[in-house]
Each structure stands twice: as structure tokens, then as C-alpha cells.
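Researcher: Re-running this chain for the archive, since the previous output was lost when a drive failed. Same request as before.
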Amino acid sequence: MSLSEIIYKRKSVRKYQSDLLDEKTLQDIQDYLVKIKTLYCDIRVNFSIVGKEHVKGIASLYSPHYIVAMSENKPGYLVNVGFMLQQVDLYLSSIGLGGCWLGMAGLREKPVGDMEFVIVFAFGKPAESLHRDLADFKRKSLAKLSDVVDSRLEVVRLAPSAMNFQMYYFITEGNIIHAYCAKAGVLAIKRLVKMREIDVGIALAHLYVENSERFRFFEVENPKEINGHFYVGSIEL
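Model: Regenerated C-alpha cells:
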């Protein structure tokens, strides 16, 4: 199946077979990691494949394989990582492998260098169903995610997010869609705050995959203000 088709079937896989993937499959994934599209060409990002011994906490029980996302800390870096890694999520599902975002996971060792640890992504051979029917998605309605019910945003509605909170909002102006992220409350958990921006990037990745020939990300001056949200960027389709 194409990545676009996977959007309508993908699920978070939380049970994996214990056996390791073969070297060719791991190399194919590594090759894919270096060619995925980015939103910000000026932000350095690194994705590495590691084993469970490098992942801290209960997350290490998920799978024998993980992708660790590292990035320069610049404006938009969390959105950028979400955008890039979700393309990998869809790719893995398209080749018969499961994947799951682990927003609360950490690394056993402190990263070396000037990049910041962002998130861990589990993947491997699924020990449960890999895909689901469209009716099984538990998501907000388009009316709650945007100012108008725009069918182009259906792929956004189906995007995964932390605890399925979908903390984003979209405004449509013809062929331009403006993306916003919900502001964090005073008592918000720090890691979940980070996930809000990552989730926006995940949603934008679905828009890109569905409209790869026309997709253009940019920022406008003086964007419209939305109560409880901050402007992330705009997409031309």
C-alpha cells in the first residue's frame, strides 16, 4: 500500500515479537531516515536506530528496536521532528512493521553533543494486528479541529497524537491552511507540552503525504489570533 493509503489504516502497535529484524530491513529503514522531507532545512536533525538497552523505563518492554530523534533546539524543531518521523511511521506500516510514539520514554545515557533529545519511537514485527478499519479510529470531528469542515483535513483528523488529545486547530483560506497549536495550561506535564508541537508536525506530515506534489510550508506575517492557541505555520496545497 502507498503511504497515503496507510493513513486510513495505521494504528499504534504496542505488542511486538521479540526477534530482531534482519540487517537488510534495518539498513532499508536507516536509508529511509536520511531522505525524508523536512519542514525546516536549517534545523539539524538526527535519527538513530538503537536497541532496548538504550531506552529507559517501561518503554524498553515494547520492542527490540527504537528510533531516537535528536535535534537542534530552534524555533519549530518539535514540529519538524513530528513531521519527519511520522513519515517513517507510515513507511514502517507500509512494509509490514508496527510502530508507536513513546512520548514519556527517555534514554539511559545522556546524549553527547549539541543536539537535544526529542522523542523515542518503538518499531518492530507486530504481535498484534498491524492495521485497523476506518471505523475504529477514535478522533475528534473535523468541526472541532477547524473553522470549516474541509475534506482535505480528514487526513489530519486521523493523525495520531498524545492520548488522542489532538491539541491543534486549522483555519482554511482557499488553497492555504493555517496551523495552530494549543497553548499549555499552568499545570501541564512538561513532556506532554512538548508532544503538542510534535503532534502538529505529525498532522502536517499526513497533509504532505496526501498532497506531496503541491505541499508548501511557510509562515505569514501577522497571522490571525486564535484564543488559546499559537500560530505554527501555513500550508499551501
